[in-house]
Amino acid sequence: MTVIVTLVQVILFAALAPLLVGVMRQVRARLEGRAGAGVWQPWRDLRKLLGKEPVRARGSSWMLRAGPLVLVLSSLVLAALLPLVTTVAERLVTGDLFVVVSVLLIGAVALALVGLDAGTAFGGMGSSRHMTVLALVEPTLLLAIYALSIPTGSSDIATIVEARLEDPSIIVSPVGLLAMAALVIAVVAETGRLPVDNPSTHLELTMIHEAMLLESSARDLAWLEFGSWLKLGALLGLVGNLLVPWGVATSTDALPVLVGAAAAGVKVLVLGALLAAGEVLLAKLRLFRVPELLAGSFVLAFLAVAVSAMVS
Question: Which of 83, 99, 130 is nearest to 228 (CA)?
Answer without folding.
Answer: 130
